[in-house]
Specification:
CATH superfamily: L-arginine/glycine Amidinotransferase, Chain A
CATH topology: L-arginine/glycine Amidinotransferase, Chain A
Helix content: 10-25%
CATH architecture: 5-stranded Propeller
CATH class: Alpha Beta
Shape: globular
Largest sheet: 3 strands, mixed
Number of helices: 5
Strand order of the largest sheet: 2-1-15
Structural class: alpha/beta
Radius of gyration: 17 Å
Number of strands: 15
Distance between the termini: 8 Å
């Protein structure tokens, strides 16, 4: 079986200048962040993933959070128009990277804004957070790009966190995991498993029963282990200071390499 691919982007020299919205600014140790990023990428490699490194965008402090710049469904990559203007120069190199791995490319156009961290894919359903970084026109363009391919788009209000996936992701069996204080409308998510830590709401499905998650959520990891999953913790403390999580440090291209 071929190894799956994931897009990643190395932290740039201005990482500590990254935007924060719902947390207090904190000092970021760039050297430690690079070590943590290297360990994150090594963990992907160890669990059957090859990485495609997007060209640096050193003038863009938030460029390491590559997930926000593209949404991939089937073989189509929708290049986003990030809600923060300072992030829009991140997208050209991402466009080159996804075209290089065989994606057909579409774009979000003004006045639309869309951050990839606001899009949670569960099978053919795309939950999209409508809030600070993603606007109604961005949601409309997401629908136009993916509904003709068979996607169902569900809009979810977001105001308590930076992105939808800052509050909720899902387990391999489709059960949602979320931190209830951050969810505005938990009823939209059907089977929802509350987790005790904010960072416990962020899981990346590595394959099989393996869940990549932040080391800062040990109680959530214990909960998942009790359910028969195998948590794979990584320390991403420097990225958490910038509202980052395990999901936003890569774009998993499952459907191209399944």
């Amino acid at each position: 079986m071929p190894r799956q691919k994931a897009l990643v982007r190395r932290p740039g020299p201005r990482l500590a200048e990254g935007l924060v919205t719902h947390v207090e600014p904190a000092d970021v140790d760039l050297d430690l962040a690079v070590e943590q990023w290297d360990a994150y990428v090594a963990t992907l490699h160890a669990h059957g993933w090859d990485t495609v490194e997007v060209a640096p965008a050193d003038d863009c402090p938030d460029a390491v959070f590559v997930e926000d710049t593209v949404v991939v469904y089937k073989n189509v990559a929708l290049i986003t128009r990030p809600g923060a203007p300072s992030r829009r120069d991140e997208t050209p190199a991402v466009e080159q990277a996804v075209a290089g791995v065989g994606c057909s490319v579409n774009w979000v156009w003004e006045p639309g804004t869309l951050d990839g961290g606001d899009v949670l894919k569960i099978g053919d359903t795309l939950y999209v957070g409508r809030g600070g970084r993603t606007n109604a026109a961005g949601v409309q363009q997401l629908r136009a790009a993916f509904e003709p391919l068979g996607a169902r788009v569900v809009t979810v209000p977001v105001s308590k966190v930076l992105h939808l996936k800052s509050a909720v992701t899902a387990l391999p069996d489709g059960t949602f995991v979320g931190h209830l204080p951050l969810l505005e409308t938990p009823s939209l998510f059907g089977r929802l498993l509350p987790v005790p830590e904010e960072s416990g709401a962020h899981v990346v499905l590595l394959g099989g029963d393996r869940l990549l998650m932040a080391a800062s959520a040990p109680k959530s990891a214990e909960l998942f282990a009790d359910l028969g999953y195998s948590p794979v913790p990584v320390d991403i403390s420097e990225f958490e200071k910038l509202e980052g999580c395990v999901t936003c440090l890569s774009v998993r291209l499952r459907e191209l390499y399944a």
